[in-house]
Amino acid sequence: MDAATAWAEAMKFENRPNPYPYYEELRKTPVAKVSEKTYVVTGYPEAVALAHDPRISSDISRSPSGMFGEKEVHLEPTEAAQGRDLSMLVSDPPEHDRMRRQFMRHFGPPHTPDLIPSMGAMVEDLANSLLDKVAARGGTRMDVVEDFSYPIPVSVIFRVMGAPIADEPKFHGWVTDFLQGADLGPEADTEAGRAAAAKAVASAGELDAYVRDLVARLAREPGPGLLSAVLHDDGPDGPVSIAEAESNTQLLLVAGHDSTVNTLSNCIMTLLRNQGSWDLVRDNPDLIPRTVEEVQRLQGAVQFFPSRWATADIEIGGTRIPAGSAVFLVWAAANRDPRQFENPDRFDPMRTDNEHLGFGSGIHTCFGGPLARLEINIALEVFLRRVRSPRLVVDPPPYRHNQVFRGPRHLWVDYASIDLVSVPAGSLDG
Length: 430
Fold this sequence. Notes:
Layout: H1 3-11, H2 20-26, E1 31-35, E2 38-41, H3 44-51, E3 56-57, E4 65-66, E5 69-70, H4 77-81, H5 95-104, H6 115-118, H7 120-136, E6 141-143, H8 144-149, H9 151-161, H10 168-181, H11 191-220, H12 226-231, H13 242-273, H14 277-283, H15 288-298, E7 308-310, E8 314-316, E9 319-321, E10 326-329, H16 331-334, H17 369-386, E11 387-388, E12 391-392, E13 412-414, E14 417-418
Parallel strand pairs: 2-10
Antiparallel strand pairs: 1-2, 3-7, 4-5, 6-13, 7-10, 8-9, 11-14, 12-13
Helix pairs in contact: 1-2, 7-9, 7-17, 9-13, 10-11, 11-13, 13-15, 13-17
């Protein structure tokens, strides 16, 4: 199987439950050309090297491959950049570095060291409240995604950003539509795929309008939260512009919950599908952090991000990437590279030295990684402690169409009971 075929197979919806055999095929050539202007990087050392290479640009406006693959017609770089304000995720230094500093001043150390730890109690309360609701409605089945994994991170990121939680239901619909319609596979060219893409465009427009209104209101009237803080910052870099506030708010609202939803769902799914793992981690809660990192490695919530391009010719992994080519760093494939990880396809909650790329690498390493880790670790501990004898109803579960953000659309779990009163960690029985 050649690289182009393996990549095309990995993009098919039918292979979303398990794209990893195709990634393994691609790793035979760790940097491979898959179309006229696109190269995919699946080897671990190659992905790390390119993530830190200044010749790799993240400016999506200048890449021949944006969110939806190679463009048949695209603007010259100067035209594409005109009037376009990019988020820090798809920008290069120095603009990237400045924006990241402006937002980090109000998100983490050294200027705001208490924000992330302060979210811990909220996460624990949310996790317990959600399980209480499941128990109160009766029955012995839940959809982990809708009943548990989704509400926690979306509530947290709305609180962090200073967005009204009452707006979440419509936000949920917009983001679901967008991710469902952002399809890089062959299904995008079907009637259903084109309909989903049209719906995605419409919902993206509504999300744009919502964010513009939110930014405008907080620019006029300061309030709590990260967004207001960066709009009224008196630090050395000053406040962010209105346009930068809008683009980064969209980024943080979407990315700040979606990958966390997927990782939490993947943690529960992975523990349940690997015999003995649930009991091992439930009875040894000190293994929860390792488990979360291992699931990030094995079942990456962000498989890759199609926005980078080479500003100069680059020789790497036995392949020459010509200047102007799109470059996809496929984190999910690199995380299973046997050159870096022993038995890479095996789930091992006791794995050590797990330097995975689940949060990316380089200057674009996930901004919200520390918050995501806190949320997942706490929520998983609550679920392990309170849900008795869970088992998967369908394996593999149904997945969303999106190739970049990979996670189950639903994760149905049957269980014997849910403890109504939280018990101390370490006092768990069978």
